[in-house]
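Form 12-C: Joint structure prediction
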Amino acid sequence: MKVLGFILQKEFRQIRRDTTILRIMFMLPIIQLVIFPLAMDFDVKSINISIVDNDHSTYSQKLISKIASSGYFKVVSAETSFKKSLAYIEKGQADLVMEIPAGFERNLVREGVQKIGISVDAINGTKAGIGGQYLNSIITDFNVNIDMNLRGAIAPEQQGAIDIRYTNWFNPRAEYKYNVVPAILVLLLTMIGGFVTALNIVKEKEVGTIEQINVTPIKKWEFILGKLIPFWVIGMIVFTLGLTISWLVYGIVPRGSFLTLYAFAAVYLIALLGFGLLISTYSDNQVQAMFVAFFFIMIFILMSGFFTSTDGMPGWAKVISDMTPVAHFVKTDRMIILKGSSFDDVKMEFLYLVGFAAVLNGWAIWNYRKTN
Amino acid sequence: MNAVELHKISKTYDKGKLRAVHEVSFKVKKGELFGLIGSDGAGKTSLFRILTTVLLADSGSATVAGFDVVKDYQQIRNRVGYMPGKFSLYQDLTIKENLEFFAAIFGTTIDENYELIKDIYDQIKPFSDRRAGKLSGGMKQKLALCCALIHKPEVLLLDEPTTGVDVVSRKEFWAMLKALKEKGITILVSTPYMDEANLCERIALIQNGEIMSVDTPENIIKSFPTTLFAAKSENIYKLLNDFRSDAKVDSCYAFGEFLHITLKENGGSDIEDLKEFAAQKGHNDIFIQQITPGIEDSFIRLMQEKTQKPTH
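Section 2 - Result
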C-alpha cells in the first residue's frame, strides 16, 4: 500500500507537469458544454423557399403570405415556372420549391380538393425533412382556415377531426440543450477514461520507463491502480465541473439524487478506465492507442443515442448499442438529470455498467499479465 | 557462490523463427566486473531481460544472486540494479524526483544509501532540479546509474551503458564501475566496444546468440593462435584486395588505418615475403610490422572460425 502511495504521488506530479493535457482535460468540459448545445440546435429556422405561383389568386396569395409570415421560411424567389425555381435548389440557394398549380382557387372552391407540389432538397436531410413538415403543417392549417371551410359548407371529414396537441414532458419546450447537456457530461468522462488513460499507459511503454518499472518490486496491480486512480479522480472532478457549468449556463440541475448520479459516473468511469487500459495493453505506441481508442469511441458515440435515438435503430444496431457502456450511461444520465429517476428506476442499467466495468478491467488485466 | 549463473539459456522470438540466444552458459563470480562483448543484435539485451526476470527463456535455467529467475523473481528484483540500454527514467520528473521515486519504491531513501551513490550523484547534484529529459547523454547515464544503485543492489546489470556517450564520459563511467566493484558489487556489463573489454576482469564474447569464448581479456588475447601483422601502403583498398587474393594469406581485414593480416603458415621471413608480394603488385610506401593482437582481432578470428566450421 505504501508503494501505491508513492506511485500515485509520482503520477499526479507527472499529470500536473503535462500542462497541455491538463489544460485540455479541464477546458474540454467548458468548451463542449458552452458551444455544443448552442450549436447543435435541430430547430430549423431559416428554410429558403422558392415559390412558383401559377394561379395568382387570392387564395394562393394568402397561402404564400402565411408561409412567409410563419417565421420559419424565407421566400428567396417567386418564379414563373418550376424549372426556374428548381435552379435555385440546384445552386443551393433554396431548400424547398412549392408549386401552386393554375386553377388552385377555382378547384378548391368548386371541388374542395387541390394538390400542391413540394420539392425538397434532400442533401441536408434534417433541414429538408423538418422544412417539409413545417410546410405541411402550415398548409394543413391554411386548409382548415380557408373561408369556404369556415363558412359551413364544410367537407365532412373535417368535422370529426381529432385535434392533436403535444406536450413535451421533462423538456416542455423540446429544447435541444436539455437533450444534449447530459450526453456531453457522458462524453467528457468517455474522453478522459478512454483516451487519456490509454495514452498515459502506452507512453510508459513507448518511452521505455515500463522496462525500468518492471524490474522493481512494484507489483502489477500497484502499477495499474497507480495509473487508474488519478484519472478516476480527474474524471470525477471534470464531471462535477461539467454539472456546475450546466447549472450556471443552462440552469440545468439534476432532478434525481446526486448520489445516484455520482454512483453511475463512478462506475461508468471505472468501466471506461478499463477500456483505456485494455487498449494500452494491445498497443505499442501512442499513435496506435490513439487510433484504436478513436475508432471505438466513434462507435460508442454514434451508437449510444447521443445524437439519434437508439429506439429508432434496427434490431442488430440496437444490440451493438446495448453492448457499449456509453449507451447505458447516456440513457440513465438523461433519466436522472431530466426526469428525476430514482436509483430503483435505473438499477438494471447500473448492473449493466458494473458488468462492463468488470469485463473490461478483467480482460485488460488478463491481457496485461500475458504481455508482460 | 556465483552472483550470476546461466545454464543453456535459449530464447527465440516470432514463434521460434528468430533465434535470439542459443544455449548460453556462463558464470559471473561474486564481486566480479564481467563484460558481455558482442556486436548489435548478438543477443545481449535478450540475456539481460532474462536475467532481470522480465523475459522468460524458452529453455535453460539461470540464477541471479542465488535466486532462480523464474521462481524467485520477486527476490531478484529487490537485489538487482538494472540499467536498460535505452534511457528509461521519467523525463518529466527532475533528477531528484526520479531518484526519490526509485528509492521509495524499493523502500529506502536517498540518505540511507547515499554513500554508495555519492561520487556519482555529486557530479549531477547541481542540476538536481532539472528534468531528466533535459539532461545531456552523460548526465542521463549518471542519473540512471544512481537510480539503479539507490537500493544497494548485490548485482548490477548494465545493458550497453556507454553506447552513444562521448569518449570522456565513457572513461569516467568505467572509472565509476571500478569504484563500485571495490565496494563489493558484482557488475555484469555489456558493450559493443571492444576497447572496453580490456577494462573488465573477465569477458564473454557473444555472436549470433552464442557464446564464443569466456575468459580474462589477457587470456583471450594470449590464445590468439597465430602471428598477426599490420600492413599499409599508399593504396590501402587495393592492398586489401591484393592480400586477399594471396594464397598464403589466411585472413586480411581493415583495422583503422592498417590492415591486419594472418598467414596460413608462419615462417622466418614473413614480413619480407609480404613486402615482396605487395611490391610485385605495384604498391608504394609499403609498411609491414608484427603486432600483438587485441580483443577485436580475437573476436574476428573466433567469428571466422565459427562461420568456416559451423558446429551446429
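Section 3 - Comments
The beta strands of chain A are 47-53, 73-79, 96-100, 117-120. Confidence is low (pLDDT under 50) at residues 154-159 of chain A.
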